[in-house]
Write a structure and sequence with these properties.
Mean pLDDT: 96
Number of strands: 15
Helix content: 40-55%
Number of helices: 12
Distance between the termini: 67 Å
CATH topology of the largest domain: Rossmann fold
Largest sheet: 7 strands, parallel
Structural class: alpha/beta
Low-confidence stretches: none
Strand order of the largest sheet: 3-2-1-4-5-7-12
Order of helices and strands: EHEEHEHEEHEEHEEEHEEHEHHEHHH
Length: 339
Amino acid sequence: MKILMIGGTGTISSAITRQLSESGHELWLLNRGTRKNEVPANVRQVITDIDDEESVLTGLASETFDAVCEFIGFIPAQVERDIRLFRGRTRQYVYISSASAYNKPAASHVITEGTTLANPHWEYSRNKIACEELLMHEYRENGFPVTIVRPSHTYCERGVPLSVHGLKGSWQVVKRMMEGKPVIVHGDGSSLWTLTWNEDFARGFIGLLGNPKAIGEAFQIMSDEQLTWTQVYECVGNALHVTVKPYYVASEFLAAVAPAEWDFEGNLIGDKAVTVCFDCSKLKRAVPGFQATTRFDEGVRRCVKHILEHPKLQVEDPEFDAWCDKVIAAQEEAKRILK
């Protein structure tokens, strides 16, 4: 197949790029080239800003594709742009949405593609819903060949997946673990969550490309493994060979006292604080044999090893570190006063 990926070097898409490049497909990437040194040699790159439509049309010339995959479309205007650019130029347009678009809490903790889409807590999710609605309208009214994919918490070797951290990523939490400091865990740590290694996600995703059962449909791609958040943090501690000291704080309190730009209301109350178990049977019917095979304890060991070996990934966040200490001290003082 001849495939164009808009993006192609991110947490999710980098694994897809590697697997497609190794399997004989003709792969093109359209992005700004910020990680061009990580792109396999047999992948063709069009380095431009996707929002510069004239530049995109010049770079792609008259090329057509079996599939165009959009990894960096977050608002309806970007999807409208893609429809203009690729109508009549692709047999399939794959849009990466988000499982955070599902209603939280849903009527059932078992989430399927039919679970209601609604998220009053997170603008990011509401924008994804709006993009999905626009695309499905184009499919129904004009035959635009859309496939929607909803990932949940997919991770790779570049960052340890944790729930409470600042804008600079999770390294500061890892550093606190290594220093023996308490680390904040939302709620009481007992809600269930699913984390998916990006190489596993890629296999499910690639199985949808060129798949006639995927046109006009939405699919979620996740591991079948569910862990409590306490178990997630313990797995990270085991990979570091340290004992984690979890410090539990209500999600609502964290959202109320964190800087607004951290958006804990969306990230926690609108997503990670709610127990969800994903049913991927629809994907497995469309892609027979798909199975996520990487347990979280295995994947996070790879993360920790890679990050410890690459100091540039160890981005410190002193603002978040000081905030954690303040939150913990405040809750401890409240306990003392109320005793």
